[in-house]
Protein: Holliday junction branch migration complex subunit RuvA
Amino acid sequence: MIGKISGRIDYRGADHVLIDVRGVGYIVHVSDRTLAGLPGPGEAVALYTELLVREDLLQLFGFPTLLEKEWHRLLMTVQGVGAKAAMAILGTLGAEGAARAISLGDARSIQAAPGIGPKIAQRVVLELKSKAPGVMAMGAALSARAEGNDADAVIEPLPVARKPTPAPTQSRAAYTADALSALTNLGYGPVDASQAVAQAAGEAPEADTATLIRIALKLLAPKG
Structure:
């Protein structure tokens, strides 16, 4: 599985780029949004990738962040949504926009993506609404660094491998902070989001980030 490609752009197409990785060229399909943010030919670039394997076809799809890659994979679990349709949704809304639309049950925003009809849009919202908090929690926990711009780490000689340090166990305060960050990214006001997360934490003291987000979204949902 090819999970990430770092190199230099040789060519920019309408929906893909050709990336040279030490003399080997990879065609990587990207969304309009991603393509607009990429540098020109000859410049360094790094993209997280998903390899689509079919009997007669191998295609690489590229994403600027791990969060967008995870949303692409989740969208493809919906019946009728293939790799290109999922890319169209992300190209129109971005990762955070897709999360917002699905969490709020906003099928019209999903339908705004090219090639996505009302039935598919509604199916996306219904099937993924319960799964969205898990991916949102992942996004809240990701580092603030620019994840897709470390191409030189592969272009230049690789550093000596270091022994990995075990990841620290996340505290309750960290779960709460990540849940609050995810809700504010969805457009909720800081006060409303804080109150909802605090109430969720009170109702479920052992909850992780995804559970806190799920409870808080229910508390924030319009009543009636």
